[in-house]
Amino acid sequence: MGTNGSTMLQPLRQGLPPLDPAAVSDAATCALPAHYEAVGEARGFTRTTLDGWGTGERTDDVCLVVSELVTNALRHALPSAAPARSDHCPPVRLHLLRWAERLVCAVRDPSRESPVTRDAEDDFSAESGRGLFLVDSFSDGWGWHPLAGSLGGKVVWALFRLPMTAQARAD
């Protein structure tokens, strides 16, 4: 775990509303192993981080979206051999970036395949397939971008608008 989100800013900025990288208030990142327990780890990391940042009322929404993004990465973006190397080279990484009034959660994975949304009217009683529908419902926007260079893979991100704090209004 670390706190440097600068390597993630460029890919994210391509599809987000204008965000000044120099104005990032906080950034945190967490490497996640290739097993489903990582979903709970990601949720715990997110809750602890957001509690520390004082983002309050959006925390539950962000945790739900992080759960869905990490689950999708583990389920659809990893090669079948990934679990064998999961402890040596975690293939999924969660990034949290906060500006005064915006929060971005981003999940990086090794696949270059586009996330596929499923129509909400398709078998809604199905146990899976609604992840991106939930991401769309609980966030203020989401998208994805392939990563260039040696990183490879892609980043799937979700944007959350945060209520302006009294401190931010005074600045």
Q: Can you offer a commentary on this structure?
A:
By secondary structure, the protein is of the alpha+beta class. The protein has 5 helices and 5 strands; from the N terminus they run H-E-H-H-E-E-H-E-E-H. It has helices at residues 6-13, 37-53, 59-76, 131-138, 166-170; strands at 26-32, 92-98, 102-109, 141-146, 154-161. It has a 5-stranded antiparallel sheet, with helices on both faces. A hairpin with a 3-residue loop joins strand 2 and strand 3 (102-109). The longest helix is centred in the middle third of the chain and has 18 residues, at 59-76. It starts with 5 loop residues before the first helix and ends with a helix.
Topology:
Elements (H helix, E strand, L loop, with lengths): L5 H8 L12 E7 L4 H17 L5 H18 L15 E7 L3 E8 L21 H8 L2 E6 L7 E8 L4 H5 L1
Antiparallel strand pairs: 1-2, 2-3, 3-5, 4-5
Short description:
The chain is an alpha+beta fold.
Keywords summarizing the entry:
171 residues, alpha+beta, 5-stranded antiparallel beta sheet, 5 helices, 5 strands, 33% helix, 21% strand, disordered N terminus, disordered C terminus
Estimate the global geometry from the Cα principal axes. globular
Radius of gyration, in angstroms, nearest whole number = 16 Å
What's the SSE pattern?
A: HEHHEEHEEH
Low-confidence stretches are 1-14, 82-87, 166-171
Strand order of the largest sheet: 1-2-3-5-4
The count of strands amounts to 5
End-to-end C-alpha gap: 30 Å
Strand content: 15-25%
| Helix fraction by DSSP (H/I, runs of at least 4) | 25-40%
Q: Tally the helices: what do you get?
A: 5
Structural class: alpha+beta
**Average pLDDT taken over every residue:** 78
Largest sheet: 5 strands, antiparallel
